[in-house]
Amino acid sequence: MFSISDDSFLVHLHKKRLQTFLSQDCENGFFDISFDIDGNILHAHKFVIASISETFKELFRKQSSSSFNADQIPIDNCSFKDFRAFVLFAYTGEWTLMTNERILKMLQIAFVYQSEEFHQKCDIYLSKITFTVESFYHFYDSLADCIIIGF
């Protein structure tokens, strides 16, 4: 079916990991971490999340070297939809449903979870936005609010 040197083999493996994540089937997904966002549970794999987040990498490292071992991490600084987009990015390197209205939320997530890759994706998106004078001031005010709040 596939040869190991074949790019289609890597694509196939990538799709299988993504399908496992999207299924959220705990019995067959072998998830080793869960996130609780506003009562909604999102299951994932630590190695995938840690690969793009210094914050989670450090948290998982501390968990493995101490008696503290939370299998469910509360997330209270963003919505389920936004955090799911971040985790989905970890699995795919892509994001969906990005809008000018959501970009500041995504930047906040990149900042809080110390994700250079996610931050770069936000930068690319921002570089393609065409602003009008009015939309620029609205965006600038929203950004200023985020900075004052400390993201």
Automatic annotation (TrEMBL):
Q: Which residues form the signal peptide?
A: none
Know the name of this protein?
BTB domain-containing protein
Q: Which domain of life is it from?
A: Eukaryota
Domain BTB stretches? 31-99
Q: Which organism is it from?
A: Panagrolaimus superbus
InterPro entries on file? Ankyrin-BTB/POZ_domain, BTB/POZ_dom, SKP1/BTB/POZ_sf
User: What Pfam families does the record point to?
Assistant: BTB (PF00651)
